[in-house]
UniProtKB/TrEMBL annotation:
It holds the Pfam family OB_ChsH2_C. Transmembrane segments: none annotated. Signal peptide: none annotated. Residues 49-110 form the ChsH2 C-terminal OB-fold domain. It comes from Natronobacterium lacisalsi AJ5. It comes from the Archaea. InterPro entries: ChsH2_C, NA-bd_OB-fold. This is ChsH2 C-terminal OB-fold domain-containing protein. Residues 28-52 are annotated as: Disordered.
């Protein structure tokens, strides 16, 4: 199996593990395609390091959340560019109503854990910490 075929078989949980360990990456197929796992059926993808800092492209404050996130509301969700890929995540460590939470804000990726699901697996997802945030929030 080639490295590209192995890269396309990386699961979302494996990708989150790498991101949590500071080894975030994305998958690239030449100049045409850049994505994050999973990427089943896409051959020829190579791992590339995910930039450590991204830029918020869009942000929205959630006031009426899914019940799993009820205790977090209000909270901000953002789309951030990290080189050739965009990630969606919950913005952490800031007031979601703050006027400085806007396009162009520099953020670092992180992994947020919401605890255990009904099937006894850990619920994890992408989060962003503004670069200017308190280091204890990272």
């Amino acid at each position: 199996m080639s490295e590209g075929d192995a890269a396309s078989r990386v699961s979302y949980d494996e990708w989150l593990d790498a991101l949590a360990d500071g080894d975030g990456f994305y998958l690239r197929n030449g100049e045409d395609e850049a994505t994050v796992p999973p990427a089943p059926g896409r051959g020829g993808l190579e791992r590339e390091p995910l930039p450590g800092t991204g830029t918020i492209e869009a942000v929205s404050t959630i006031h009426v959340p899914h019940p799993d996130f009820g205790d977090d509301a209000p909270y901000a969700i953002a789309v951030a560019s990290f080189g050739p890929v965009r990630l969606t995540g919950q913005v952490r460590g800031v007031d979601p109503e703050a006027s400085d939470l806007e396009r162009g804000l520099a953020v670092e990726p992180t992994v947020v854990s919401k605890g255990e699901n009904e099937d006894h697996t850990e619920s994890r997802f992408v989060g962003f910490i503004p670069v200017e945030a308190n280091p204890s929030e990272r």
